[in-house]
Description:
Largest sheet: 7 strands, mixed
Bound molecules: zinc ion
Strand content: 15-25%
Amino acid sequence: MIDKSYNPKGIEDKWYSYWLEKGYFKADSVSDRPPFSIVIPPPNVTGSLHLGHALDVTLQDIVIRWKRMCGFNTLWLPGTDHAGIATQNVVERELKKEGRDRHKLGREAFIEKVWEWKEQYGGRIIHQLKRLGASCDWDRERFTLDKGLSRAVREVFVRLYSEGLIYRGDYIINWCPRCHTALSDLEVDHEEREGSLYYIRYKFVDGEGHIVVATTRPETLLGDTAVAVNPEDDRYKDLVGKTLRLPLLGREIPVIPDEFVDTSFGTGAVKVTPAHDPNDFEIAQRHNLPFIKIMTGEGEMSDEAGPYKGLDRFECRKNILKDLESDGLLAEVKPHTIGLGHCYRCKTVVEPYLSKQWFVKTRPLADEAIKAVKEGRVRIIPQGWENSYFDWMKNIKDWCISRQIWWGHRIPVWYCGAMTNQACKDKDGIIVSLETPGECPYCGDTGLVQDEDVLDTWFSSALWPFSTLGWPDDTDDLRTFYPTSVLITGFDILFFWVARMVMMGLKFMDKEPFHHTYIHALIRDAKGQKMSKSKGNVVDPLEMTELYGTDSFRFTLAAFAAQGRDIKFSENRVEGYRHFINKIWNAARFIFVNLKKEDKIEPVAGLSGLSLSDKWILSRLSSVAAEVNRTLEEYRFNDSANIVYQFVWHELCDWYLEMIKPALFGDDAVARGAALSTLVHVFETCLGILHPFVPFVTEELWQALPVDKKAESLCVREYPTEKDGIPDREAEDKMRLVMEAVSGIRNIRGELNLSPSLELRAIIRTSNGTGDVLSENISYISKLARASSIEIGQDVDKPEDAAVSVNPAMEIFVPLKGLFDVDAEINRLNKEINKIEDNLLFIQKKLSNEDFMSKAPKAVVDESKDKQADYNDKLSALMGNIEKLRQWGKQDG
Length: 893
Ligand SMILES: [Zn+2]
Ligand SMILES: [Zn+2]
């Protein structure tokens, strides 16, 4: 016998350990069963579980448990990402607390520190995934910096380089002066801010007049090497080719024509700072202009900045403006909205910066990746994301893959220090190699220096679907599980990760990395706001599992995971689904209480003595099992969850359990046997259907069910299909009529506010054919509707003074005489109406008061408006009730 109520704590640990011990989560490298595989989006080692992960993991676990039960050779491969900048930042902060920093420590010692940190804290998130019930094959856990993956990374780098798809170049990159590293375009958060547009006079060297240029970053004028105008711009046509004197530094710079210049911006003449602006960088390349770097990697002014050397970039801006003003060169300052880039890690304002970086030439890779989706080899679900994918892929820029940090895959490039012969010089002394080279292959010199940079974290995660399966070796795992079946992740990493996996998978495996990718929406709070620490609306998943049990939490996530819609999450909902878990528990208790030792549970197929309700529930079970499988196949998790929820709660518990009570408690052994066998069968099947969603409670109950089971654990029970039920159209049609009759009488009871225990009399006027069905099942109806007598017929008379409920198949009358005082009820309702009208008047006065409306905060006004609408709704409902009662009462006279 099970406990009175469900207590998740001990039960969850017990079954999770049992599953691990039995090895149910382990995949077979070679198997006759069809494969089904998922690689986990590797969470950062620095991470701790947030709602986004919880959703990710729950949906993946539902799919993998379902497929496992369907008989597939399933692999869910877990692991973590080394998360370059994020992890380095965490360890740097720790060092700072001890008054140390990484530069003093040195590279090797620092990396050792990070590994120590990883050993100590990096497992936290994995532990948290287990708490959610994740059925990963933990023996195959990987880390993006482990030996095998590092080997894959080198292999890919070397191959891409040898094919000319990786190159080193000067480039304007996004630079974070705080993190001291390049950031990819995706790693820069853009924000609109109120700033200024400064108009600055550049005088001609011949002393005749000047040109005014407009800029939002006046300090960069120190690095100007030209002023550009549009060749079509009549205002400047005659000035092209003349020479200007750069303000403050006095350098001579030319006026050049370039079609890129937007004639509507500022004055139509722009300063060109090739080393500090991506557009100017391109202009400079077209016109062969010099590049002058006026800033250091720390965001301070360099030697090239003359008298401003050593100043912080924002300090320098102030000084420059002051000096321009006193030289009479600052023509005007206008307010201007500027798009400012920030480092996504530390929020520092990003600086466009000229440096030597490594790039992947993405165009050819992206073209293949577009094709794979166009041809349906990769399906993006929901399909709406495909357009964003195509847009991004079509406009993709080369991917800057070098990062100026220490934690990560060090770039497998060495530089020859000697360059003693021409062969070496031709190669710029660059050596790219799988193994650390001992000497320069071109000139034999041994003074080699490895590139200081590491690769972008996303470089290694782009290889995740095949590097984790053993690539570059040709392994059984790789042959069995690649391409993987589905990737489940959030839209925020569609470009960072998903798109790049498609490119790399196609390039190195010649096959897409996954057949499907399901992109889930964002989880917001109950009001639809983004969750953030500053708003204080962040929900901790582990707290939810602690308070309500993991199953309730998982079921909530699944039930709200509708495609393409943000999930509005609230604790109330988890609490609500805990009731569902309890409902399942109580249904089990009902079975255990009523099942006697001597009871024999028979297979339902061919069982004699099945009642209408037995046939009906078996037929519904068949449809529900089919529907759940179908919706899971389409990743409609919310639909699957709601279908099984409705079935278990309403059809099984509310209707079926009530309907079979007479049979269970009666003397007819055949009827009792049929009901009991059906009940146990339906319940056992429901536990199977529910298992992927709520694995713990279902396993606990299933193991306790005292019946023959064909598996050792629910984990490996065959997943139910429509064959587990018995389709029976006729039974469903008949039951619908019975349910309509019962509901009709119950509705009247509700409208009249009658106590549930009060016995009624009911008269049912039927249309053709329905009467027989109802008469056959009159005992159900009278029991479920608590009717002491029921009269059924095609030509029964409508009694005087009766409440009425009508549906297409029948009219139901409940005589009120002696049961109910219509006048007293109308009086009571009228009093309620008066009260509500008073309240409404008060609110209306408030809302028409101009003083209140202008001063009250919007939230207060909204609240009043909501109340007003509420009261109006109630009012019309009460009026409707009175109207009905008056009609029913009329028959009085
Ligand atoms: Zn930063
Ligand atoms: Zn050399």
